[in-house]
Design the sequence.
């Protein structure tokens, strides 16, 4: 029942830019299954109403389809592909940005009995579950507000809080709750993730990043791997190659300079690692990317 109305609302309000009149709410409508494309997840809830999608993060692969949802608690580099989409039956998805401050506020309001203790081992940064009816009901009611501009300003924040509460108390609640805990293992890993993303082009010592994140080296390795499915160095490589791919879309004839800009001193190493990641040499992939960079594979996780 909920999925049918959800599909109708998503199809009616889908726009090329994926945004909506409700802050933090995204809608995706994808009419073809394009090749896998890299993107960053953001911290997000994504619900599939029609079709299916596959995400790869490090050595982990996540697949979710109509009636399922995905949560991402850290902004992670993934490769995504809609695997079930055509013009007659497009893939339809709902996205909601998850704000750590909003999670923290709800946890404080609920009291300490509903919050996990901080400082435990970090959980994976991405998880997939079947969407329960109360969650789908809240998502549908939020989307209905797109047709009710008079009510939207007052009611949308309330329904978004309900959706967040459904997540916090649901099957993947542990992952979502960690977003709001200032001293959780996830928060320490997220600090390191942000630093690596901001300084991806420069070399670093893992010991220094562990210290920056406030963890011992052994705990940092363990928790970083648990959240991201990668080592810190592998994570840096993923960011470098994704940034290089974006740059090559606008500078396809400047492969050496792009490689150097993202942190590679060796052009041959850059070309070798790029080809291993994307299946084609930088110059060849750049040509292909210019034709597909505006497609929808990375619109929602």
Sequence:
């Amino acid at each position: 029942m909920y999925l049918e109305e959800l599909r109708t609302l998503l199809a009616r309000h889908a726009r090329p830019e994926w945004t909506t009149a409700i802050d933090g709410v995204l809608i995706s409508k994808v009419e073809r299954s394009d090749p896998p494309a890299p993107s960053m997840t953001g911290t997000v809830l994504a619900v599939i109403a029609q079709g299916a999608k596959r995400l790869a993060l490090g050595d982990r692969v996540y697949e979710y389809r109509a009636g399922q949802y995905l949560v991402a608690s850290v902004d992670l580099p993934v490769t995504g592909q809609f695997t079930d989409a055509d013009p007659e039956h497009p893939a339809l998805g709902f996205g909601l940005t998850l704000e750590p401050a909003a999670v923290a506020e709800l946890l404080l309001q609920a009291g300490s009995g509903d919050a996990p203790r901080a400082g435990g081992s970090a959980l994976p940064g991405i998880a997939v579950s079947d969407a329960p009816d109360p969650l789908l009901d809240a998502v549908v009611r939020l989307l209905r507000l797109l047709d009710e501009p008079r009510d939207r300003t007052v009611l949308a924040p309330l329904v978004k809080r309900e959706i967040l509460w459904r997540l916090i108390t649901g099957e993947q609640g542990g992952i979502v709750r960690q977003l709001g805990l200032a001293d959780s293992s996830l928060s320490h890993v997220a600090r390191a993730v942000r630093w690596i993303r901001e300084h991806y082009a420069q070399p670093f010592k893992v010991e220094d990043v562990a210290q920056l994140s406030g963890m011992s080296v052994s705990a940092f390795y363990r928790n970083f791997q648990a959240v991201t499915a990668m080592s810190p160095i592998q994570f840096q490589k993923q960011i470098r190659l994704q940034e290089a791919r974006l740059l090559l879309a606008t500078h396809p004839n400047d492969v050496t300079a792009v490689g150097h800009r993202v942190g590679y001193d060796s052009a041959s190493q850059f070309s070798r690692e790029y080809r291993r990641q994307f299946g084609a040499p930088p110059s060849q992939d750049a040509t292909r990317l210019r034709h597909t960079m505006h497609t929808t594979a990375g619109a929602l996780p």
In short: The radius of gyration is 20 Å. Confidence is low (pLDDT under 50) at residues 115-119, 294-298. The CA atoms of residues 84 and 236 lie 31 Å apart. The domain at 2-179 is CATH 2.60.120.280 (Jelly Rolls).
